[in-house]
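S1.2 Input.
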Amino acid sequence: MANRWSPNRYQCSTDTELLVSILVRYPELATVCLDASTQTLRLSFLVAGELPAAKFRSLRRRVELSVRAYGQLRSVCPGVICVRQSSYDQLTVLHVVRDIQSLSQEEIGMLVALMREALGSQLTTDDHWVGDDMSGQEEVIDQMLEDIRSSRQQRRLTALRDDGRVLVFNH
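S1.3 Output.
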């Protein structure tokens, strides 16, 4: 009976729970990728339509300045701040890559708010999650970020949304 179901067999690891919690808390995020080997987290936003080069440069600069200013307020020096875009016909994907060591849940919230303000209705949001009570998610995210910092796992995980569900892939 080695194939018998066991509740421990299906428990999620902290890194998987972190990605799911971030996507549940922030419906503006399309995907979240954790690369444990580089200790980075990539937050991806879907933007309807093309993003002009000047607007992207302005947004990238704003993100970089905001992350650095937020780091100064917390007395933390951000290690990795990378903002890039990928364009696909009438869709733009914005990627913000941050190092896990200096990242906090509050900063993720700030980045999401910044994107919402800068992109308005162009920013794609998953309607399945809007309106849910997310008050408890923030503390959970902060605790899991702390746990990941001390973890020795070397996995690369990507979480994405699919019709009201969150799927996590190990690659």
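S1.4 Remarks. Residues 1-10 have pLDDT under 50 and may be disordered.
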